[in-house]
Amino acid sequence: MDVVRTPAAGWIEVIVGSMFSGKSEELIRRLRRAQIARQRVQIFKPAVDTRFADDHIVSHSELRIPSDSAATAAELLAKVRTDTEVIGIDEGQFFDAELPVAATVLAGRGMRVIVAGLDQDYLGKPFEPMPQLLAIAEYITKTRAICMVCGNPANHTQRLVGNRARVLLGASGTYEARCRRCFDPTLAETEEQKQKDAAARASAEGAGTERR
Ligand SMILES: [Zn+2]
User: Fold this and answer.
1) Which of 33, 44, 110, 179 would you call most buried, defined as having the most Cβ atoms within 10 angstroms of its Cβ?
2) From the CA of 144, how far away is ligand 1's center (Å)?
């Protein structure tokens, strides 16, 4: 009997969670397994993320794997080779709103597309385009960190510094993993106000000195 296989269908896998939950480690683990099986793998990270190395994905625990960078989802799509079987994308939240479309196109070509990223920003709000990717993915993995205050499972990224930009790169000292109870979305705003008050006091004191 002849067994006729239809061409493999592609699919989308999404790995989401807070910072320090092991998303990049999990992405690297899956990509390594594919490489061991001699599948053709391409790995991308957003051009904005240059924290550790320009041409590698690096987890906080120093696992690393060579990667290409792309500034936009369109650039990523253009860089994918036709014979690629598995595509890994790290820090998906730093890509534009076209990333779900690009992932759909690649899965439609029969590729396995794995995207890792933050599902929430520092305010606890859904971090686009990850929610859109979660909606269209075949497989979803949610990684949890451990709350650095109380030790419970942590689903939030707590920003510790007074800066309200949505994208603020940083690791230890800038962010902490926190559980629902210990997470304080107003902390960045409070810290920013404290800095402004301190600066205002300093300039008032400076002005007082000049008058003397
Ligand atoms: Zn906690």
Assistant:
1) 44
2) 12
CB atoms within 10 A of CB 177: 23
Residue 154 CA to ligand 1 centre (angstroms): 7
Report whether 42 contacts 9 (CB < 8 A). no
Question: Exactly one of 75, 91, 176, 210 is catalytic; which is it?
Answer: 91
Do 124 and 79 meet the contact criterion of CB atoms below 8 Å apart?
no
Does residue 204 or residue 148 have the better pLDDT?
A: 148
Domains and CATH numbers, the chain: 11-211 (3.40.50.300)
156 CA → ligand 1 middle, Å: 10
* pTM of this structure: 0.86
Please state, in angstroms and rounded to a whole number, the distance separating the CA atoms of residues 81 and 49. 23
Report the DSSP beta bridge partners of residue 161: none
pLDDT value at position 212? 47
Cβ neighbours of residue 155 under 8 Å, at least 6 residues apart? 17, 18, 120, 144, 179, 180
